[in-house]
Amino acid sequence: MKLIATASQTVGPFFSIGLAHLHQDSTKTNSADAQTITGIVVDGDGQPIPDCVLEFWTASSFARVPTSVNGKYSVNVESGTAMCEVLLFMRGLLRPVYTRVYLSEAAKARDEVTSKLVPRDRAGTLIAQSGSAAKQLVWNVNMRGDDETVFFDY
Protein backbone atom coordinates (compact mmCIF):
# COMPACT_ATOMS: atom_id res chain seq x y z
CA MET A 1 0.00 0.00 0.00
CA LYS A 2 1.40 3.38 -0.98
CA LEU A 3 0.49 6.35 1.20
CA ILE A 4 0.14 9.67 -0.59
CA ALA A 5 0.17 12.94 1.33
CA THR A 6 -3.02 14.97 1.18
CA ALA A 7 -3.11 18.69 0.43
CA SER A 8 -3.47 19.57 4.13
CA GLN A 9 -0.44 17.43 5.03
CA THR A 10 1.78 19.06 2.45
CA VAL A 11 0.92 22.65 3.42
CA GLY A 12 2.96 22.58 6.65
CA PRO A 13 5.13 25.62 7.36
CA PHE A 14 5.27 26.49 3.68
CA PHE A 15 1.80 27.99 3.81
CA SER A 16 2.91 30.85 6.02
CA ILE A 17 6.11 31.36 4.02
CA GLY A 18 4.19 31.48 0.73
CA LEU A 19 2.03 34.33 1.99
CA ALA A 20 4.87 36.33 3.60
CA HIS A 21 4.76 39.08 0.97
CA LEU A 22 1.09 39.66 1.83
CA HIS A 23 1.50 39.93 5.62
CA GLN A 24 0.86 43.16 7.50
CA ASP A 25 4.04 44.63 8.96
CA SER A 26 3.12 44.58 12.65
CA THR A 27 5.96 46.99 13.50
CA LYS A 28 4.20 49.77 11.57
CA THR A 29 1.08 51.37 12.93
CA ASN A 30 -1.66 51.99 10.38
CA SER A 31 -2.57 55.30 12.01
CA ALA A 32 -1.77 57.28 15.13
CA ASP A 33 -4.77 55.87 16.96
CA ALA A 34 -4.69 52.24 15.79
CA GLN A 35 -5.37 49.46 18.26
CA THR A 36 -3.08 46.44 18.44
CA ILE A 37 -4.41 42.94 19.03
CA THR A 38 -1.80 40.43 20.19
CA GLY A 39 -2.15 36.82 21.19
CA ILE A 40 -1.07 33.25 20.77
CA VAL A 41 -2.61 30.37 18.81
CA VAL A 42 -2.37 27.00 20.58
CA ASP A 43 -3.38 23.43 19.80
CA GLY A 44 -5.38 21.06 22.00
CA ASP A 45 -2.33 20.31 24.16
CA GLY A 46 -1.67 24.00 24.77
CA GLN A 47 1.34 23.96 22.43
CA PRO A 48 1.91 27.02 20.22
CA ILE A 49 1.13 26.69 16.51
CA PRO A 50 4.04 28.30 14.63
CA ASP A 51 2.72 28.19 11.08
CA CYS A 52 -0.74 29.72 11.34
CA VAL A 53 -1.92 32.66 9.25
CA LEU A 54 -4.74 34.84 10.58
CA GLU A 55 -6.85 37.17 8.46
CA PHE A 56 -8.68 40.00 10.22
CA TRP A 57 -11.61 41.52 8.31
CA THR A 58 -13.63 44.60 9.28
CA ALA A 59 -16.14 46.64 7.31
CA SER A 60 -13.35 48.91 6.07
CA SER A 61 -10.04 47.04 6.42
CA PHE A 62 -8.19 43.77 6.05
CA ALA A 63 -4.96 42.46 7.54
CA ARG A 64 -3.13 39.13 7.20
CA VAL A 65 -0.58 38.16 9.86
CA PRO A 66 1.42 35.00 10.60
CA THR A 67 2.20 33.44 13.94
CA SER A 68 5.83 33.36 15.08
CA VAL A 69 7.73 30.21 16.04
CA ASN A 70 6.17 30.71 19.49
CA GLY A 71 2.64 30.82 18.06
CA LYS A 72 2.32 34.56 18.75
CA TYR A 73 0.82 37.16 16.43
CA SER A 74 0.22 40.91 16.40
CA VAL A 75 -2.13 42.91 14.20
CA ASN A 76 -3.08 46.58 14.00
CA VAL A 77 -6.73 47.51 13.51
CA GLU A 78 -8.39 50.88 13.11
CA SER A 79 -9.34 52.69 16.29
CA GLY A 80 -13.06 52.44 16.89
CA THR A 81 -13.30 48.92 15.46
CA ALA A 82 -15.83 46.92 17.47
CA MET A 83 -15.42 43.47 15.93
CA CYS A 84 -13.24 41.61 13.42
CA GLU A 85 -14.17 38.58 11.39
CA VAL A 86 -11.20 36.19 11.61
CA LEU A 87 -10.10 33.36 9.34
CA LEU A 88 -7.32 31.00 10.47
CA PHE A 89 -5.30 28.99 7.97
CA MET A 90 -2.84 26.32 9.10
CA ARG A 91 -1.42 22.89 8.64
CA GLY A 92 -3.91 20.08 8.89
CA LEU A 93 -6.87 22.14 7.71
CA LEU A 94 -8.36 21.65 4.27
CA ARG A 95 -10.10 24.99 4.60
CA PRO A 96 -9.81 27.87 7.07
CA VAL A 97 -11.78 28.07 10.29
CA TYR A 98 -13.92 31.12 10.92
CA THR A 99 -14.43 33.02 14.16
CA ARG A 100 -14.82 36.56 15.47
CA VAL A 101 -13.07 38.76 17.98
CA TYR A 102 -14.97 41.48 19.79
CA LEU A 103 -12.82 44.32 21.05
CA SER A 104 -15.03 44.83 24.10
CA GLU A 105 -17.76 43.06 26.05
CA ALA A 106 -20.14 45.85 25.02
CA ALA A 107 -19.46 45.21 21.31
CA LYS A 108 -20.30 41.54 21.73
CA ALA A 109 -23.46 42.36 23.66
CA ARG A 110 -24.67 44.56 20.77
CA ASP A 111 -24.34 41.65 18.31
CA GLU A 112 -27.69 39.91 18.55
CA VAL A 113 -26.71 37.01 16.31
CA THR A 114 -23.68 35.95 18.31
CA SER A 115 -25.46 36.65 21.60
CA LYS A 116 -28.14 34.16 20.57
CA LEU A 117 -25.84 31.54 19.00
CA VAL A 118 -22.95 31.33 21.44
CA PRO A 119 -23.51 29.76 24.86
CA ARG A 120 -22.86 32.28 27.63
CA ASP A 121 -20.09 30.18 29.18
CA ARG A 122 -18.16 30.14 25.87
CA ALA A 123 -18.69 33.78 24.82
CA GLY A 124 -15.50 34.87 26.58
CA THR A 125 -13.44 33.07 23.93
CA LEU A 126 -14.55 35.76 21.46
CA ILE A 127 -13.70 38.83 23.54
CA ALA A 128 -10.27 40.50 23.52
CA GLN A 129 -9.00 41.62 26.92
CA SER A 130 -7.15 44.83 27.76
CA GLY A 131 -3.39 44.47 27.40
CA SER A 132 -0.55 45.99 29.37
CA ALA A 133 -0.13 48.97 27.04
CA ALA A 134 -2.55 51.65 25.92
CA LYS A 135 -4.60 50.61 22.88
CA GLN A 136 -3.36 47.01 23.22
CA LEU A 137 -5.75 44.08 23.39
CA VAL A 138 -4.98 40.41 23.99
CA TRP A 139 -6.92 37.63 22.27
CA ASN A 140 -5.68 34.04 22.39
CA VAL A 141 -7.01 31.31 20.11
CA ASN A 142 -7.38 27.75 21.41
CA MET A 143 -7.95 25.32 18.57
CA ARG A 144 -9.20 22.49 20.83
CA GLY A 145 -9.85 21.59 24.43
CA ASP A 146 -11.91 22.91 27.32
CA ASP A 147 -11.23 26.55 26.43
CA GLU A 148 -11.64 26.06 22.67
CA THR A 149 -12.39 29.27 20.84
CA VAL A 150 -15.86 29.37 19.33
CA PHE A 151 -15.72 28.69 15.58
CA PHE A 152 -18.60 29.19 13.16
CA ASP A 153 -19.68 27.13 10.15
CA TYR A 154 -19.83 28.99 6.87
Sum this structure up briefly.
With 154 residues, the chain is of the alpha+beta class. It contains four helices and nine strands.
Q: What is the CATH topology?
A: Protocatechuate 3,4-Dioxygenase, subunit A
Percent in strands: 25-35%
CATH superfamily: Aromatic compound dioxygenase
User: Total number of helical segments?
Assistant: 4
Describe the structure.
By secondary structure, the chain is of the alpha+beta class. The protein has one domain: Sandwich (Protocatechuate 3,4-Dioxygenase, subunit A). It is built from 4 helices and 9 strands. It has helices spanning 7-11, 14-18, 105-110, 112-117, and strands spanning 35-42, 53-57, 62-66, 72-77, 83-89, 97-102, 129-130, 136-138, 141-142. The strands form 2 sheets. Strands 1, 4, 7, 8 and 9 form a 5-stranded mixed β-sheet that branches. Strands 3-2-5-6 form a 4-stranded antiparallel β-sheet. The longest helix has 6 residues, at 105-110. The protein is globular and about 55 Å long. The relative contact order is 0.20. The model has no long low-confidence stretch (mean pLDDT 83).
Key structural traits:
154 residues, alpha+beta, Protocatechuate 3,4-Dioxygenase, subunit A, 4-stranded antiparallel β-sheet
Would you spell out the secondary-structure blueprint of this structure?
Blueprint lengths: L6 H5 L2 H5 L16 E8 L10 E5 L4 E5 L5 E6 L5 E7 L7 E6 L2 H6 L1 H6 L11 E2 L5 E3 L2 E2 L12
Parallel strand pairs: 1-8, 1-9
Antiparallel strand pairs: 1-4, 2-3, 2-5, 5-6, 7-8
